[in-house]
Amino acid sequence: MKFSLFTKPRILGLALSLMASSAYADHCSVNFNYGVVIDPKHVRFLDHGQTKVQINGDHQLFISGREIQLSTLQQKELSQYTQGIRSQVPVIVSIAIEGVEIGLKAVNTVIGGLTGENSQTHQKFQEKFDDLHLRLRKRFNHSDQSYYIAPQDFNDFDEIFAGQFEQEIEEIISSSLGSILVAVGEAMTASEDQNSEARVDTFDDRIASLSQNLEFEVGDKAKALESRAAMFCDKLLELDKLEDNIQMNIPQLANFNLIDAGQDDAHQSQ
Q1: Per-residue model confidence as pLDDT tens digits over 203-253
Q2: Nearest residue to 103 via CA among 163, 190, 35
Q3: Is 258 part of any domain?
Q4: According to the model, what pLDDT value does residue 130 have?
Q5: Which of 80, 117, 122, 137 has fewest C-beta within 10 Å?
Q6: Is 133 buried (19+), middle (13-18) or exposed (0-12) by CB count in 10 A?
Q7: Domain range spanning residue 192?
Q8: What does the mean pLDDT of the chain come to?
Q9: In what order do the strands lie in the sheet with 30-32?
Q10: Statement: residue 6 has pLDDT above 50
């Protein structure tokens, strides 16, 4: 008898691969060389956990804890830069969280389709994914007005978050694969009006339809997210030019270089 249930976990991997490969098809050759912390009163740039540069408000500058007196022109340039950082870091966090949410929702849809919506197995997965989503937000110290981004490359956008959390999603699926197959088996057994071969063929058709629907649903969301990522990258390139001006016009910041644009290996060599 043709019985291909054990190949179906590949469909679960489809959601993850769509999240990683479709949402971030374009590369952004920009690096952050420092960690960035934003709260309502400060912007701080961290080097190995220590604050190297701090900006209070928009233009009160501290370097290694010492305030730097600035002219009106210097304050204006620093204010433009600070406002740009304040506007773009939340975008990074939003893109990262939305990318993972696309994957989680897709996997949840697959599990619901395999085991039945609101089944015990599906509810257990939902609880695990809710916990994962909460920890994702905590990773960025994300509150309404506070954010944290570690030093990193944006060349492969999904690497901002996908490595750790994609592995966790796969582990959740793998550890619960037995209960999924049991639930699927029960659903198939309940189809008493069909013989075993027909039940498997029907289930294969169901999987194929589910997979196709996911590709359309996730694909559309991924394309929208890709557009946002491209806009974000353009904004970082603009900020890099502002940063160049600040380095020239504020001598104390001559060696400060948060943003590296078009230098894929710069961050990795540090």
Answers
A1: 566 666 666 766 776 777 878 888 888 898 899 999 999 999 999 999 999
A2: 163
A3: no
A4: 81
A5: 117
A6: middle
A7: 7-252
A8: 75
A9: 152-153, 30-32, 259-261
A10: no
The answer on pLDDT for 21 being more than 60 is: no
Structure confidence at residue 207 (pLDDT): 63
| Cβ–Cβ under 8 Å, residues 260 and 35 | no
pTM (predicted TM-score)? 0.72
Distance, CA of 191 to chain centre: 41
Residue 208 and residue 7: Cα distance in Å, rounded?
A: 12
Concatenated DSSP letters for the chain?
----GGGTHHHHHHHHHHHHHHTT-S---EEE-SEEEE-SSEEEEEETTEEEEEEETTTEEEETTEEE---HHHHHHHHHHHHHHHHHHHHHHHHHHHHHHHHHHHHHHHHHHHH-TT-HHHHHHHHHHHHHHHHHHHHTT--SS-EEE-SEE-SSGGGGTHHHHHHHHHHHHHHTHHHHHHHHHHHHHT-TTS-HHHHHHHHHHHHHHHHHHHHHHHHHHHHHHHHHHHHHHHHHHHHHHHHHHHHHHSGGGTT---EEES-TTTTTT-
Domain count, the chain: 1
Q: Are 129 and 105 in contact (CB under 8 A)?
A: no
Rounded distance between C-alpha atoms, residue 140 and residue 137, angstroms: 6
- Whether residue 260 is contained in a domain is answered as no
| HSE value, Cβ hemisphere, 13 Å, CA-based, for 261 | 13
Q: Rounded CA gap, 54 and 61, in Å?
A: 6
Residue 259 lies in a domain: no
- 232 falls within a domain: yes
pLDDT tens digits along 95-150: 877 877 777 777 777 777 766 677 777 777 778 778 877 877 777 776 778 998 88
